Amino acid sequence: MTNFSKDAAHPEIVVITSGKGGVGKSMISLNLSILLAQMKKKILLIDADLHLGNLNFLAGFRPRYTISDAIQNHVPLQEVLTKGPEGIDILPASSADMALLENENTILRKLTDAFSRFESNYDMVVVDTAAGIARNVLAFVLGGDKIIVVVTPDPASIADAYGMMKVIRQANENTPIMMVANMVASHEEGESLYNKMKLMVRRFLDCNLFFGGTLESDEQIKGSTRRQKIIALDQPRSTSANSLRIITRNLLKLPVSDADGKLNLFERMQYGRDLAVGGME
Ligand SMILES: Nc1ncnc2c1ncn2[C@@H]1O[C@H](COP(=O)(O)OP(=O)(O)O)[C@@H](O)[C@H]1O
Ligand SMILES: [Mg+2]
To answer: 26 C-alpha vs ligand 2 centroid, how far in Å?
Structure first.
């Protein structure tokens, strides 16, 4: 299955997921990308919510093209790349593209071909995924070197995060998973949420869950989002920006399994997609 080319240098791929929507994945993806860039990493941020992407709204820019133009209208992926703050590159998605609902295999193949031409420009690729555990979401998730699962105290978020981790573990035993507790009332609540998840994951999935840190429910985050600002830049001295820096450092410390570290992102997505459907084709 892994008969892909193994010669080029590939960036580390960090995938941010949750199962449930509205838990802060996009906000965290954007802030981590900015903070990693401030640590001198060359970052590509991909909006993998191909149908309902909103990174451009969160970051306050209007993209000229989106990934969907690369797939459907033959725009080179390099031209879709948009410069974000701190020198990060962003691949924006369109915010309402029904046409992309089909042809998932074609999408992945086209992205793989295009991406392999410029991926070596980056140290890390941050992938912000859509909600749910649909096959195309899993293809991205299972392609990661490191997976961040964002969980809030909402029971639906806990259940969906657990469901997502179960699917990840069924397909892949080695990829480290780091949990971030978001929208908690206090650091203590975040830690106890983590301990609860860790116990569940240990007991029922027999695997480890790393702790990424906590982010409190914060009016400043809401305010920044409303003004289309990124809190790490907008209010760098705020409690939330500090928490995001801790999460970024924990991400960098996370051990990485080198089992399939030589594949590029979209090759891994295809591999992930195959795993997600149990070796289809
Ligand atoms: N810790 C937090 N405190 C307050 N608001 C938050 C927090 N985290 C996220 N939000 C807000 O919740 C909303 C959903 O966040 P978003 O990142 O779009 O979620 P997702 O990508 O998981 O759907 C946004 O308005 C965001 O600003
Ligand atoms: Mg999102």
So the answer is: 4
